[in-house]
Amino acid sequence: MNILSASQLDAYLDQTEAALEQQVEAELDPELIGAGLKTALESQHFHADTMGGVRRLFRLWIRARAPAAGLRLLDGDGRAALAALPGSERPAWQVSAAIWRVEARIAQGDRGAVQAAFEDVLALLVSLPESLAYDRAWEYLDEESAAFGVHAVTRRCAEARNALQRADPERAAYRAWDDAQLAIRQSHSFALEGDATLARQAGERAIGILAGAAPDQDIDHHDWLRAGNALVQVLPDAVAGIVAQARARIPAATVFFPRRNIDVRIARLEARALHQQGALDQALARLELGRVTLLDDDGDHIGALMLDWLLEAGRHDAAARLAFESVLYERRISAPHAAAAAQRVAGDGTPQQPYWHLALACATMADATAGVRGDEDQAAYIGRHLALARAGGGAQPAADAVEALWLIASAQDYPRALPLLESAARDPALLQSSVVFKLIVARIRVHGAQAALAMPFVPASNGLSCYNIGVMLGSELNDALPEGLTVPQQQAKALGARYYQAGLACFEAFVASGQGHPGDGEAHVYSMLCNNLAIHYRYDKSDAAAALALHHKGIAASPFSEHFEGVMRSHQKLGNDSAVVDSAEHLWHFSADHGYSRHDPTDYVDDAAAALHRLGRDTDIAIWLQRLDDWWAGVGQDERADNQNNYTRALVSVLYYMAQTQPDDAMLRLESVLPSVPGAGSPYTSRIAADTLRSLGQFERSQAMYRDGLRYIKSGDDWHESQRTAILQNLEECKRLQREAKPWWKLW
Fold this sequence. Notes:
This is DUF4034 domain-containing protein. This protein is an all-alpha fold. About 70% of the residues lie in helices and about 0% in strands. It contains 37 helices and two strands. Strands 1-2 form a two-stranded parallel ribbon. Helix 16 runs parallel beside helix 18 and helix 35 (about 685-695) runs antiparallel to helix 36 (about 700-710). The longest helix has 25 residues, at about 490-515. The relative contact order is 0.03.
């Protein structure tokens, strides 16, 4: 009998997992996949001697719908592999194995065995020294026991976890929150069990705990809103009081996007409470603000919810218009939801509103919703629904927009699409990024660049679309034009900046008033817009002060490293050395703390060193030299070839400034880097190395390095010619200094 173990088992598992992935990608029947896997596994004999092997083999038995075999694996190889583990590694794997047993018991469907398995996990967690560290295991117990309907187990788990939290001195400031969480979990459990009275009592207990929290307890407005969202189904009538508690705890300094973020979250909570109480029209009114997209949203679930509520309220016209808007904007969550709703309406005999047809026609042009047409020819499907929409009347601009998008997508027929897009532009609600960008492209294709850019500006309907159009004009415009037709770069940049400015106005109007389009509240998009517009001001308008203000706005809304780099560059252009040093510090530390994939210290370390030298703070240059070395030490060997020349340039530049006041230290380090200078192939790097040698009195070596730098000059290139001029001037200066350094009585 051949037993697969060790490397043979690993190879078998690799092969089997890869085959399963291929079968899933081929969309084979899951029943057939499971049956085939079960047959394959039962034809082999296994010995898993590591917990990693046990885990992988167990997962295969579960996918094969053979939970009994999975349990036998855990009882045999699993116990042996656990016993062989070092003591420090054993607890985490014990928890994992206990959870696997729960999965197997759930697959078997024996309610008593499942409950016992849950109890075993709970007993194990409580027995471990660092039991609270296993957050995922506690969450698994809470969610899966509730889903399986063993609600008494759910409550015992919550009570056990709370007891451990109360015994932990490090959670002393969170006693009230932990106790409130226990009451909230109990409320959920009773509600799922069907006991509305006990559910309400537990929910009220949670609110009382939070309201009565001592001053030393860490309870803020976020906690109140979390509690409100957790209890809204059980205690919708208590939400008004919860919101009042949250608002009372908002720090006075909370302004700008953070304040609007809170307002939107409160609007969503209040809308859910009103809906739960049957006040549907009021709920929909609050959801207008609740629809605004927030930084931490995972898709526009609120748009899908609003569509459901509109249909529930019988407001079919508004529902159809929202469905079309969701599909037109290709919103990740609500677009498929809206397309499915449009299909249902089209098939149930409801009097047809033209926007349902337009939603279906538009849906076929996006991958996420293209399935609505089934096997029908796409052109025929779109034509049929466009005809029905136009026959219904009242949606002419929207129908024109959909037809234009189809003409472009199917045949690149911009001449026929252009008048339709111009018609669509009469309806501001249609002016999202795709429609506006295609209108700009159509104008250029039909009228030529100069005439098109002189035509009336078409503003987008919201800040997000304005940002997207600005990006598209910078990166996609020329690709959308036929060969030989281009837009001058400066004109394209100017038009892009105009959209960024329009977007800025949309975002800031929302922040000021709390009212606006759903695309006007995304703080990170606003921040990216500020960065792009600041770059335009800094480089294309030479207005570093305006750029600096925009970078600070972006940092206040949603900071990221490019803003800190932009702040530093703006201060450079303004000649503020002290601010250059401070902003370089901010950039370095922010990138280290938050990550920055394009963080390249070679771009600014030498600028920081130059500013420090001009400020007379030369001793601090060594800090930046050390940072450059630390960064280089962390660059992988496979990336060093791409970064070597930049690193050499930055290092030589830093040493140049260090040499002015710390010549011995600079010379010691310079000797090690000089051999790599010619390899950089840069006239600038050679010139700075030569300047450093000159300042250190190494005149002969300096002159040789200047001459070496001349070899890399590219004639006719403005920058290279400027380097030639600088090298020749510095070479003559070096010769002069060398002559002056000789005693008068030496003739040689």
